[in-house]
Fold this sequence. Notes:
By secondary structure, the protein is mainly alpha-helical. The protein has helices at residues 13-25, 34-41, 56-60, 62-74, 81-100; strands at residues 47-49, 52-55. The protein is 58% helix and 7% strand. The protein starts with 12 loop residues before the first helix and ends with a helix.
Amino acid sequence: MVKRHKQIGIGSLSLALVLAGVLFSFSFDNRAAIGDTILNFIGLDSWSNGNMGIHYTFIYSAVFYIPAMILGYKFKNDLGATLGKYLSLFLFFFVIVLLLSL
């Protein structure tokens, strides 16, 4: 019996979109999140009240998580699609719970 390996395909973008969503919404090493920099560059606020309040990049990260879920479900036989699907699902609900707890 020959074991078939998963190939890189459209579903592999699911994992890349999750990574983009994480980079967009979380800050690392006491620096501003990449999403903050992008939003400020295009003239949008990244926080609801100056540097406090609701962090809008969490909301904007759904732009990455939702397509990652869809691609992961639709192209589940591609390399990384299943992992991207579950990570995006977890992070999407994590963001929803965080926003509801405010």
